[in-house]
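Show me a record, fold above all:
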Amino acid sequence: MSRSVLDVTFAGWAATFGLIVILFALDLFVSRPGHAHTVEFREAAIASVFYVSVAIAFGVAFGFIAGWEFGTEYFAGYIVEKSLSVDNLFVFVVIMSTFAVPTEHQQRVLTFGILAALVMRAIFIALGAALISTFSFMFLIFGVLLIGTAIQLFRHRDQDPDIEENAIVRLTRRVMPVTEAYHGDRMITRVDGRRVATPLFVVLIAIGSSDLLFALDSIPAVFGVTEEPFIVFAANAFALLGLRALYFLVSGLLDRLVYLSTGLSLILAFIGVKMLLIDVWHVPIWVSLALIVVILAATAVLSLRADASAAERDEQRQLA
């Protein structure tokens, strides 16, 4: 059976892009200079529910307009990108801890870092779509890349990333003088008449460069779910839009998701195999969506059980 073709008009692209720009503008307005503050749980929860609700509403509207074949692809892509983003959040937590970023300034650097990530992913999406339309074997390359990433993710599932070994961060420190202390929420300041970077600028570079590496994995992963550039862009954009609020909501819970990397490695391996066998084995999109949801649910349940068991053992040792 031949596959339907998604024909998105210029007005459709413009409306979607405009909605995303407006949402990011709201995010930037909240964290503008002079309004830095510590994001409390209630604020993060409300923002997270808002962004997820907007993403779901967009998917429902998109499904009614374009058809539920494409609507299901959008939701599958969104869930894949959102789950990979949670793993990305773990790196963000490590970066914030490594550089001891004051809590009242974390939302500002996260917002600009995620905005830069959205621009980079848009470039990767355009490049990936061009490569796939020109070279049919790109699915094989993407499949091998995802399987390799899945293996590496599983092998290093218990290791924290070493931010100081980030090549771009090291280069930034060599090229630009960096102050020892933070200067409010400034990224560039003046010391003794010369312009210098603050640690907050280095944090922004670290977040942007780490998300660039994540984009190298997430873009092939979502292309394994859908071949439509519009769906790939929308899924990435809406997943990234809620990332800043989600960071403050779950940053204290990430250590409890001990099997997150294992679950993500299984998802990436499945999508990689699916891309390698795309010419001989067609997996219905609803099967892919159901499998992704089941893996993530099992990951969460097993992680919370393991955390509860570890806490119980610690309590018993203290009593003994």
About this structure: The chain is about 75% helix and 0% strand.
